[in-house]
Design goal:
Helix content: 10-25%
Distance between the termini: 53 Å
Protein name: Carbohydrate porin
Shape: globular
CATH architecture: Beta Barrel
InterPro entries: Carb-sel_porin_OprB, OprB_Porin, OprB_sf
Mean pLDDT: 84
CATH class: Mainly Beta
Low-confidence stretches: 1-60
GO molecular function: porin activity
Structural class: mainly beta
Order of helices and strands: HHHEEHEHEEHEEEEEEEEEEEE
Transmembrane segments: 20-40
CATH superfamily: Carbohydrate-selective porin OprB
Number of helices: 6
Number of domains: 1
GO cellular component, one term: membrane
């Protein structure tokens, strides 16, 4: 067993590492900005030559435009919303509800509902105080519901409802609270505050078309680690993104490591919870092929978490051992192969990816996925979309399954083993069709099939039927 002195030693080591985190961020910024200014002077070729935002290529290039964000508001409410935006105050209210039921398999038949109401306020300080290319963002959510994965599948890793997880049932949870500054028309962007690796590393919004949690909007293997925060978890962050050429970008990030990632309300920022620093590096290539502008996104990267991690305890052991450092590495892509419309995602898109996490200290060490999207396949319905995704997960060594056999289990064993049942691997198939009902309103029936729920191989395969409702005000 680990002694109290050893545990205190690990905590003190982590505090010493995180005490200098703000100074480290400022030092990095001071070192790189002269080089950035010099590079900007040598590459800026005039108005319109540079992207307006970093990870999207502007309309004046050959890259297709993104789909518009439509709102449910009409009439006087819509005019009030637009008036605020013209003054630099952008307000977004988003309601997301999901229902899922277990048709067969698992440990029992059940159905659960989960929902989220999000409010985001973006302030454009160019319009407010004439500070160019400077914005601030604050986002909060209210979350409610239950997890079908633990209620009916004995699976604590992948939930059929993607929006229920971090934050749990909470009246208000603070998500983002950060500032962003752009240079060179968005070719260089610095983001600092309560942010996360989630939007910039091993992530894609295309992975959230399907309802399940396996890949939205990043593979589940990444979100289980302390050093990788994703919605609605955040950490103190500093992130620099640079686009050296139109189709390429590189991203650097430094983040605090905190197992609680803001806590239940998202406001638990105490230094006692900091265990280390996560450094991230990634890059991507975003080409456009042929006269039909078939766009693609190819990316790779890694994240290193300096905090202490306990090795997965062997079933016959019981002694906890520690190591410092955990590595996440990933590759991912999506490529349009057939165009249906003029938006960036209007067409048939194939996607895939692979993530690896340091095995001996990880719950899930490897995850691979492939997917097929077909957006706007019917004339007159450009925002309808079909999504198919298959994902497989391999657990780290010595990870105990949530479900353990007993003499009264639904699959009883003549002799209950003395050693706990371990998890090894599982796979999930997810199929959905999104109906765009009107501006700001979408509804998507969804079907999922779980092979080996929870990874033990002892819980029967499960078929899940659900529906996903989304409204933007």
């Amino acid at each position: 067993m680990v002694s109290r002195a050893d545990t205190v030693g690990h905590i003190l080591h982590a505090r010493r590492a995180t005490r200098f985190f703000p100074a480290f961020v400022l030092l990095v910024a001071a070192m790189i900005m002269p080089a950035v200014r010099s590079w900007a002077q040598s590459t800026n070729t005039g108005p319109g030559a540079l992207p307006e935002i970093l990870n999207a290529i502007p309309p004046e290039s050959n890259y297709p435009p993104p789909p518009p964000v439509t709102h449910l508001l009409q009439g006087e409410a819509a005019r009030w919303h637009d008036s605020l935006a013209n003054k630099g105050v952008n307000l977004l209210i988003d309601d997301w509800s999901e229902f899922a039921g277990n048709l067969s398999g698992g440990t029992r038949k059940a159905q659960d509902f989960a929902g989220q109401v999000a409010v985001e306020v973006d302030l454009d300080w160019d319009r407010i105080l004439h500070i160019p290319d400077f914005t601030t963002t604050i986002t909060a959510v209210q979350r409610h519901g239950r997890r079908l994965s633990t209620d009916a599948l004995q699976d604590g890793i992948v939930n059929p409802e993607q929006i229920y997880g971090g934050g749990g049932n909470v009246v208000i949870h603070l998500v983002y609270f950060y500032a962003q500054k752009k240079w060179m028309h968005g070719r260089v962007i610095l983001t600092m505050g309560r942010y996360a690796p989630g939007p910039d590393f091993d992530s894609s919004p295309l992975q959230c078309l399907v309802m399940g949690q396996a890949t939205c909007s990043q593979p589940r293997a990444t979100t289980l680690t302390d050093g990788y925060s994703s919605w609605p978890g955040t950490a103190w962050s500093a992130m620099l993104r640079v686009r050296p050429t139109v189709p390429t970008y590189i991203t650097f990030g430094a983040y605090e490591t905190s197992p609680i990632k803001g806590g239940t309300a998202g406001t638990d920022w105490g230094g006692d919870h900091m265990t280390g620093v996560t450094l991230a590096f990634g890059g991507g290539y975003e080409p456009v092929f042929g006269p039909h502008r078939l766009n693609g996104h190819y990316k790779a990267g890694m994240l290193w978490d300096s905090s202490p991690h306990a090795y997965n305890v062997p079933a016959a052991d019981g002694v906890t051992r520690w190591r410092h450092g955990q590595m996440i590495s990933y590759i991912a892509f999506d490529q349009m192969v057939l165009r249906n419309g003029h938006y960036s995602d209007s067409g048939v898109i194939v996607q895939g990816g692979y993530t690896h996490v340091t095995s001996a200290i990880s719950v899930v060490s490897d995850q691979a996925y492939v997917g097929l999207l077909d957006v706007g396949q019917f004339p007159g319905r450009p925002r309808d979309a079909l999504g198919l995704t298959w994902s497989t997960l391999r657990y780290g060594p010595n990870v105990k399954s949530i479900w353990q056999p007993t003499a009264t289990s639904f699959t009883p064993d003549p002799l209950v083993p003395d050693l706990p049942l371990l998890a090894s691997h599982e796979a999930i198939f997810d199929a959905t069709y999104n109906f765009h009902l009107r501006d700001g309103v979408d509804i998507a029936p969804d079907f999922q099939y779980f092979w080996r729920p929870g990874g033990s191989g002892r819980v029967p395969n499960a078929a899940i039927l659900g529906v996903n409702f989304h409204a933007i005000l």
